[in-house]
Every structure is written in structure tokens, then in C-alpha cells.
Amino acid sequence: MLTESDAKQRWCPWARAEITDGDGSPLASANRLAAVGHEGPDIEWPDARCIASDCMAWRWDELRDTRERKLVNKKTGAEEFSGTTADTEWVLVNPLERMPQRMGYCGLAGKP
Ligand code: SF4
Q1: Which of 19, 59, 73, 98 sits at 20 to 30 Å (Cα–Cα) from 31?
Q2: Model-level pTM?
Q3: Looking at ligand 1, which residue's alpha carbon is closest to its atom 6?
Q4: How far is the CA of 18 from the centre of ligand 1 (A)?
């Protein structure tokens, strides 16, 4: 499981970046620098990184997704539904606790 910001530092095996010639005309596409004759380690193409939740394949970890849970007020025990976003609900119900970071994964590789 990764945070979105961590995922955006990882390579996406499906992404392709355009390779152009000296005039800027498109030649091909690649996602690894070795594909364009880069000498040295075969490292990722910087433009071929995961875009996390902007991608249709991204999946949120449902167990940590506060939007999927009923939130319970720790003082009263009552369920709280404010009609606001999940993050706002968390802060309203748990004002003194650090909000858990949402985690997710690339759904194309299967569930971790
Ligand atoms: S979620 Fe998967 S397919 Fe989508 S950009 Fe990230 S690594 Fe690529």
C-alpha cells in the first residue's frame, strides 16, 4: 500500500512518453531510458510515473478509507454523518487525533 505521493514517485509499466527527434517530431514512445539508447542503468523514464488516483486503475485501501466506514463519536457513541467530505468528517469526529493517510495501490497488478 502506498500514499498517493509515494505512488507518484514509482514507475508505471503502462505509461509511455513520446520520443522526438531534434526537430521535435515524434519518433516513438517508451517508458525506460534504455529504449532510447541511454547508457548506464536502465532507469525509468521520468514522465512514465504513476498518476495514482487520476488513473482509472488506482484502488483505495478500503479498510483505511474513512468514507467507507460509519464514524462513531468517541464521547457519545453516536454515529456521525455530517454530509461533508470524508476527511472533514474524520476531523469533526476525532478532533484530537491525527487523520490517517489514505493508502492505495495499482489495481492492474492485483490486490496486495
Ligand atoms: S495506477 Fe497503475 S496503471 Fe495507473 S498510473 Fe499508476 S501504476 Fe500506472
Answers
A1: 59
A2: 0.64
A3: 50
A4: 18
Ligand 1 centroid distance, CA of 55 (Å): 6
Pocket test for ligand 1, best of 6, 51, 61 (most atoms within 8 A of CB): 51
Q: 99 and 78 in contact (C-beta within 8 Å)?
A: no
DSSP string, 22-53: TTS-EEEEESBGGGGT--SS--B-TT-B--GG
Q: How far apart are CA 28 and CA 36, in angstroms?
A: 9
The answer to whether residues 2 and 107 touch, using CB atoms and an 8 Å cutoff, is no
- Rounded Cα distance between 63 and 51, Å, is 22
